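fyi for ur records
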Amino acid sequence: MRKCDHCHLEFDDDSLHIANINGKDKYFCCNGCEGVYRLLDSEDLGGFYDKLGSNTLSPVSKNTSSLNQYDTEAFIEKYVSKDGDKCSISLVLEKIHCVACIWLNERILLKQNGIFSVNINYTNNKANIVFDITKIKPSQIVKIVRLIGYDAHVYDASLQENYARKEKRDYYIKLSVGIFCVMNIMWIAVAQYAGYFSGISNDMRDILNVAGFVLSTPVLFFSGIIFWRGAIAAFRHKMPNMDLLVISGATLAYVYSIYASFTGGETYFESVAMIITFVLFGKFLEIRGKNSAADSLDRLNSQMPLDVNVIRDSKSVRVPVREVEVGEIVSVCAGERIALDGELISEVALCDESSISGESELVEKAKGDRIYSGTMAINFAFNYKIGKQFKNSIMTSIVNMVEDSLNTRPKIENLATNISRYFSLVMFVVAGIAFCVWYFALGSSFDRSLMVAISVIIIACPCALALATPLALLVGIGEAINKKILFKESKMLETISHATTLVLDKTGTITKGALSIKFMKSFMNLKDSNYELQVLIQIINQNSHPISLALRNEFSCHYEFLEFTSIEEISTKGVVAKINNDLFLAGNFELLLEYGVIIGDEILDNDYEGSIFCFAKNDKLLLFCILEDEIKEEAYESISRLKGLGLRIVLLSGDNKRACEKVANSLKIDEYYYKQTPLDKANFIDRLHKEGEVVVMAGDGINDSVALSKSDIAIAMGGGIDLAISVSDVVVLDSKMSGVLDSFIIGKNTYKFIKQNLAISLIYNAFTIPLAMAGFVIPLIAALSMSLSSLVVVLNSLRLKNI
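which gave:
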């Protein structure tokens, strides 16, 4: 007979296989034990076997399901995202119970060659892993997770609901067993306590003890299996956690009660059952709280259709959205949700874009207009040509952005994680000290001293501390989604709560961005056949500036295509175009004067409040316009409330002095700067940083991209939603100034509630641990109060929904 070098169980020599590890022959009963041994050895965790001593382990259970599917071309195409040389995959880890489990998986995975980063979200156990697929394959990643006692499956929104339902059903079954046993064991406890006062025979006492043993055993080993798994993993990897505290306390009480049954002492079987049941119930409420907070994410996913009608060979074929290629024609029925981005090829369409923009008004589309995924066709059917694959569509980008927002942790969460990581180990030491003081110094009985130590172990579980930050972040992100605000990373909630300065662009941010012509003077023939007018129309149709959009409404006639010799856009000034020897200028006074255009004093000397547009040919002015933009209705109240939050408000605009001054005065913004180029705006952000300011900038995401990238938080208004997502940290989908205000309010409130949760958990431990050490708390009350502390943190986080 020989022992397996991992589990230390004895087997026949023929049943063991030999592996040479570090020049020594090692014997294993199965590949699972060998795999764990090799992993612990490679991570310098071999000291675990010294601590194991003469104890034995169960052989590592082998998951026989195949991993080949993770390396297939179809799987990689669907679930693995590629960005240059780096790939990323999202996995959901199973059997995760606490932050120590998170830490262990991250540490082991990061040690693997080819893995660049691992972020595991405690609220939904979703792991985002960035890796080099040429060095490590997805199947190998899952295999490593299995080897350390956990399991993983690929994240797929369509599969998560089934997984969540299964998890909930398992909790229901385990809770049902626990509650049934607790209700019955309480009657036994009543009889035992009554017997202590009125007298009870030894035979009857033994019968009651056996009944208590029978009822507490399934609670400890079946209902408590969740905690056993986490405790075993923690013990193996020398990482004490909440599960180890719960199981240690309950098992000590259970073992002592068996001993007391034979020696005539007091038993605590009812405490064992209640400890496990109460803590399990608290964990169940924790999961329900997470699910409630994540409802907004589920609603986003539920908006996406699974298949669409594609026109192939003059026939309509139902095709899964992931298989539709760019350039194919999709037919949409009235009332159907649009799954893919594209371009309308029918003459007209009516769409409800409230899921993206937040606006309830229907949008009428003309041939050639963009069609967005996530919107809905209204009244009649239409056809459109696919412009992006499903994985690159707007709604998929939004969903991915929301899901990824919880994967980066703010500094305060890292602090809480570090505290809880060592907290459990400290509590074991404190419990040992309490036992020694009561037993040796105070001369109390062994069972009294043991119950004090058990109470300390159980009451100190860091569940509330582990939940304090991630649950509040999840609720905050969910509330932001409800208000049509997307945070790319949850840590931005912490950053925005510390912001001191808000920099605002004018056009498209404070104003509606829909300019209208207030005054126009023409020095040319405005008939359609006019050559110069044809040039103007072609220039404004090739430009997306708000002034060009306003002029398109005025000069909406068709034009004949003219081939420019050259055309160039000059930032903040306008457009310079050449056709043969003719020079055409479309822009402001500065551009025209720079090229020597003659402008009359009656036009040049006035101080205009609106935006200026001029059109000239060679040195002759042909058209002069004054355009004005309206301030967004909600901007007045929003700016006022933002000031009330203590923020320094700065207006940066590329417009002229009078136009900028008018908007600033209307909104009572004291600090404003005009005629700012994109580079000027970026330099201004740099100056604010040198002054020690934490800067948030809100812009339209088009010409403010440089300045946005310089700011601590970039808020993009969602008018150009795909561009806004690419250049920002926060996207306000409905483009309202109230969205900017809500971003600050949600960030500040979330951070406030995180601090409240941390205070609750720390004050709870500071108050209850001394009480337990002093002997004022029995294990049953310890379990109840620990569960209540977690529940208080959950309920406090959910209060964010009502603010």
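Residues 292-296 have pLDDT under 50 and may be disordered. thats all i got for now
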